[in-house]
Amino acid sequence: MDANIRIAQLLCSRLCHDFAGPAGAVNAGVEFLSDGVGEASEAVDLALQAAHQMTRRLEFHRVAFGRAGRATLDDAKRLASGFLVESGIVLDWPDDPGPQESVAGTPSISQLVLNMILLGVESLPRGGTLVVRVATRSAATAVTVNAAGDGARVREDVVPALDFAASVELLSPHNIHGHFLARLARELGTTVRISAVRDGIVELSAEVPRNA
To answer: Phi, psi at residue 82, to the nearest 5°?
Structure first.
């Protein structure tokens, strides 16, 4: 099978998995209402909460995996904040746009940041903090995402997927986002580096050439 087709299939599987939970909860809430099970207000609350979660995930994934359009870094921060609601993960991304201002209109960097955040989220199995920094330099834009929390680590199956040249046989719906990140970084003329700063902290970093 063509590698690009296989990658597209795996991404679709991944997205379906991410939306299955909240979609099922919406359905359950509607069924409770129609069957008259429990309090109507509880069923409505369940359906609304799940619908909001699904909307936030859709908005995040549309930019992270789709055509980013004119998404700015401010847009990326808003999407990341919504995505992390009820996740047990705190987003530390300064409001001051100072060093980010000159790259705020670069959709590709916004997309790269969101995919690095997604990898950071999966590196925090027990919750924690994501520290995001984007800074312009003379020749490149530096992006760092630090995932800090108890048991922070990059899953073993994700590590080989982060190689642009990884065989499709190594890819699955569980690690395809890592491979997509590797391919996106390559398109921007960079690679994403991963390092364990110390116990409980994983650092993801990339430097995107200014002409990317």
So the answer is: -65, -40
Residues sharing a CB contact under 8 Å with residue 152, sequence separation 6 or more, in sequence order? 123, 124, 128, 200, 201, 202
Q: Which amino acid is at 191?
A: T
Phi-psi bin for 199: left (phi > 0), alpha (psi -120 to 50), beta? beta
- Tokens representing 103 are 């790259």
- Give the full edge-to-edge strand order of the sheet including 193-198: 89-92, 128-136, 140-148, 201-209, 193-198
The DSSP H or E segment spanning 74 is helix 73-83
Question: Which two structure tokens, joined as six digits, stand for 106?
Answer: 């670069």
Question: Cα(80)–Cα(134) distance, rounded to whole angstroms?
Answer: 14
* Greatest alpha-carbon span in the chain: 64
Structural domains in the chain, sorted by start: 3-209 (3.30.565.10)
d(CA 73, CA 108): 10
The residue count for the chain = 212
Q: What is the pLDDT of residues 44-97, one digit of tens each?
A: 777 888 888 889 999 999 999 987 567 889 999 999 999 999 889 999 999 755
CA distance 154 to 36: 45
User: Once rounded to an integer, what is the mean pLDDT over residues 6-18?
Assistant: 92
* DSSP label at residue 173: T
- From CA 115, how far away is CA 145, in angstroms rounded? 10
- Give SS3 for 195: strand
